[in-house]
Amino acid sequence: MVVTALKEPASLATRRTPRVKTGRRDSQTRAAILFLVPASIGFLVFFAWPTLRGLYLSFTDYNLLRPPTFIGLDNYIAIAADPVFWNSLKVTLEYVVINVGVQTVAALALAVLMQRFTRSMVVRGVIMLPYLIANVIVALVWFWLADYNLGLINAALDAVGLGKIGFFGNEDLAMGTIAMVNVWRHLGYTALLLFAGLQAIPRDVYEAAEVDGAGEWRVFRSVTLPLLRPVLAFVLVVTVVGSFQIFDTIAVTTGGGPVDATRAINYYIYQRAFERLDFGYASALAVILMILLAAIALVQNKLLRANESDLER
């Protein structure tokens, strides 16, 4: 007896296949939504809502003792005529220039040295150690080390006859000292980011430059820096934005002094909000800072062409 296998009609098979694909797609969509929900809630609760609330409060007179009173642009007009605000902006810019300039150059030099002489995981771990310490602890340790009367640094300077220096008490040195403390903490992290960028540069590019007879400096200037630009742009944007938000080091060392020499804009916002309870004015300051940082980041990305790489050319 010949048994003929029953063949499923083509129309039925055609109808079933999309159902399997559709079911799989629906399950993937549900899984994606499940993963996105916690992050979305965190974004809405800790970023979107505080941002909108702060924007609203910037147009009000609010001090926790009474409901917010809408006053329009009065806070912004007062800020434009506030000498403390302009001084805090100048102080912040001074810190940003020192911190970003020294940190980027030193981190780039350290990354190049690591690329040339060692790629040891132990060395990378040691370099990262300061970054793993809380910023407040780092600030306190350096504050004690540089103390005018009891600090080891001043004891060493006095021992060699150079005399003691008021690192945090001198208005001309205080902000530079704070910047160097933060350079010490973040140097390893920034260097490792740049080191990762150097690792991504193909070796044959350097070999071609050597064949052409390019020297060390010429290779660095014409090959390494252009190919490192996307990573360098990212580092600069992150470092600049982070530098504008300097707060904890100032809070535990100088408290904005001496003579407002270290009263950065973030610390001024804190003082207006939590010392004077002027939350409307502080919110207006925060909105100005947010707009300023967004503009700086956009300009940096545009000038540095952060989304382009010379490897693609």
From TrEMBL:
One GO BP on record is:
transmembrane transport
Where is this protein chiefly located? membrane
Q: Which residues form a coiled coil?
A: none
- Residues annotated as transmembrane: 31-49, 95-114, 126-145, 183-201, 227-247, 279-299
Q: How does it sit in the membrane?
A: Multi-pass membrane protein
Instruction: Write down a Pfam family by its short name.
Output: BPD_transp_1
Q: Which residues form the ABC transmembrane type-1 domain?
A: 89-300
**Locations listed in the record:** Cell membrane
Q: Name one GO cellular component term.
A: plasma membrane
Which keywords describe this protein according to UniProt? Cell membrane, Membrane, Transmembrane, Transmembrane helix, Transport
Record's superkingdom? Bacteria
Family designation? Belongs to the binding-protein-dependent transport system permease family.
The record ties this protein, via PANTHER family, to: ABC TRANSPORTER PERMEASE PROTEIN (PTHR30193), DIACETYLCHITOBIOSE UPTAKE SYSTEM PERMEASE PROTEIN NGCF (PTHR30193:SF41)
Q: What is this protein called?
A: Sugar ABC transporter permease
Which source organism?
A: Cryobacterium lactosi
Q: What is the lineage of its organism?
A: Bacteria, Bacillati, Actinomycetota, Actinomycetes, Micrococcales
